[in-house]
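Example 3.2
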Amino acid sequence: AKTKDGKVSVSFEVTNTGSRAGADVAQVYVADGHAKVPRPIKELKGFAKVSLQPGETKQVTLELDRRAFSYYDVKAKRWRADPGVFEILVGRSAADIQLTGSVKLAQ
């Protein structure tokens, strides 16, 4: 969900399905398939370490500002975020994506 100050709030739940207390790192990636320049398939934009007891679930919220959707435009010599739909991916690593969503960035 987009906030009043232009930030995008990414919320999800993390559950410890094991029988022991543990910790994990939830990672948030942004994929930009519409930029005017080639971009990586997904870029790490935020993370949160979560400690959980057995069976415990915690809500995690990370905020992404406009810079999370931007790239450096060498010709214009400035950061640029092209309007369009960005994919939001959440997982334990880039190779282990568990949740996906999207956000539309206006000009």
